[in-house]
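Hello forum,

I keep getting stuck at the same step: I have a sequence, I want structure tokens, and every attempt I make locally crashes halfway through. Rather than fight my setup again tonight, could one of you with a working pipeline run this one for me? It's a single chain of 411 residues.
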Amino acid sequence: MVKIDRFLIAGIDKSTKKQMLLSAFVTFCHKINALVVAEGIETKEELETVTAMKVDLGQGYFLARPNKKPVSCSSEAKSEILRINQPTVNGLEVGNFIGSLAKYIAPVNNDHKVEGILKRFDLEKDLSSVPVVKDNRPVGIIHKTKIFYKLGHKYGYDLFARKNVENIMETGMVFEASTPLDDVARTIITRDSTSVYDALIIVLNGSYMGVVQIHDLLEAITQQKINMAKQANPLTGLPGNNLIKTEIADRLTAKNIFAVMYFDLDDFKPFNDNFGFDQGDQVIRLVGNILRDMTQEWDPLGFVGHIGGDDFVVICRAGGIERFCEAVLHRFTAESRKFYPEEVLEKGTYTSKDRKGEQRDFPLLSLSIAIITTRNRVIESYGRLASLASEVKKKAKTIQGNSYYIDQRRQ
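Reply #2:
Ran it on my machine without issues. Output:
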């Protein structure tokens, strides 16, 4: 766990710099599988901001006053946390968080006797695993098949039946309820083959919440992929317009600081007319692959969408996007050369019809990037952002060759 000092949390809803710094901390900590704790949360706005920024745990007067005994957080704080963390996948029905799959199975304390567990397995025929807790915090898990195998050995029952379950339990794999399904899947495949299908323990802020069976996880991920595929662009496999709109709207609602970048190929129609639609499709796939690869490297929480045709969207962190744009343009210039014959590369132009049907020379394909960020302004809605984007895209298209244009307005 990494605790963020209250100096950074105080007034974070009003400070762009504090939000950027916290965002960097959260991204780094989640990469190394560490939980982030924000201390000194004293207002609803501070809670809303740190929760939307994926901070895992919190403490502060708005949640609860200091107390000798554990107490529930305030009703106002609880409702706010539940509202922000409502499990969704880009507006789809399948929950994107592992907590949406958790089923409550009554746990046993670590000092519970083994023979009691055996009786429970005998009475509850469908029960396959029982979590073990201490002060409602998971400390292990008992799997039916494994305990029966262990006790089935000679003297096994006599050795363990009257002992506490902590002497025979196994270490369980524990996930916070807000962990995305894909992250869970990537983690469980690292387990050894004897444990890969064991049930998972789910916690909410560290306290036991329930259990998820692996087959339920696989079914949910499969359904999620099917739903995503239905709304994906068939040429690139990237999310289409509905998912792009939902992603932007969700980030605006959460008051995140982020950048929306619109990518557009310059003079793509003449290229298509001259070199053929198959070549044109390959160029579009190239752009999609470049954006997918480089966004994942630049910002693991970034989003890449395909509006249609030669138009793409990248939604990612706002800091340092100039470097990202320059890297994308450099890679596109290098990799797009393979679509031209040698004589065109030497000349630097090719001849094709323009939109009026007249023959003229066109330069090699280039990318225009129009960028809007929420860094220095508040954008109230997706409609407002789309209106701003239309203006910025027109400005970006007036610049010849590979280019990017960042909207600097504050209103």
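Residues 87-94 have pLDDT under 50 and may be disordered. If your local run keeps crashing, start a new thread with the error log.
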